[in-house]
Design brief:
The chain is an all-alpha fold and about 160 residues long. It has a domain of about 80 residues. It has four helices and no strands. α2 crosses α4 and α3 crosses α4. The longest helix is centred in the C-terminal third of the chain and has 46 residues.
């Protein structure tokens, strides 16, 4: 559902994938808790539930920090790949900067400020495109992994 993202993303594009993700996570926790705590004696359930929730929170925190680090580093790699074409000697870059400077000057910015705003806007566009590229790769990779799991599950039962 999310493998074809673009820079024209609206909140409604994300609604159904996030809705299905939230519903599926809700259906995951009941069997997980039953599996973890089902074989215990009633007097052990309180302590085991605390340990289970602690491990779930620590695991989630470690997982989120690892994914965040991976995303930041990969986004920097994509940014480095994209910035090769953004040099002051490139005519397309020069014309884009001049066009943005005229737009900012039309809104009352002095030339020095207009140039800084134009370069900042160009950099913001570069970051947005790098993150969009990274996000599309992540979703395409997760779709590939999910199809592999499905394929193994279907083929192993034959």
């Amino acid at each position: 559902m999310l493998a074809h993202l673009s820079l024209d993303l609206t909140p409604w594009v994300l609604f159904w994938p996030l809705f299905f993700s939230g519903v599926s996570i809700a259906f995951m926790f009941v069997p997980l808790n039953t599996l973890a705590l089902g074989a215990l004696k009633p007097e052990q359930i309180g302590i085991a539930s605390g340990i289970f929730n602690l491990m779930r929170n620590v695991g989630g925190s470690v997982g989120i920090s690892m994914v965040t680090t991976l995303v930041a580093r990969t986004a920097q790699e994509h940014q480095t790949t994209l910035v090769v074409d953004l040099t002051p000697y490139d005519t397309t870059y020069q014309s884009s900067i001049q066009s943005m400077m005229r737009a900012f000057a039309g809104h009352g910015a002095v030339p020095f400020t207009a140039h800084r705003l134009a370069v900042g806007s160009m950099y913001h566009t570069l970051l947005t495109q790098a993150i969009c590229w990274l996000t599309s790769i992540i979703f395409a990779g997760s779709r590939c992994c999910a199809s592999r799991v499905w394929w193994r599950r279907c083929c192993s039962s034959m």
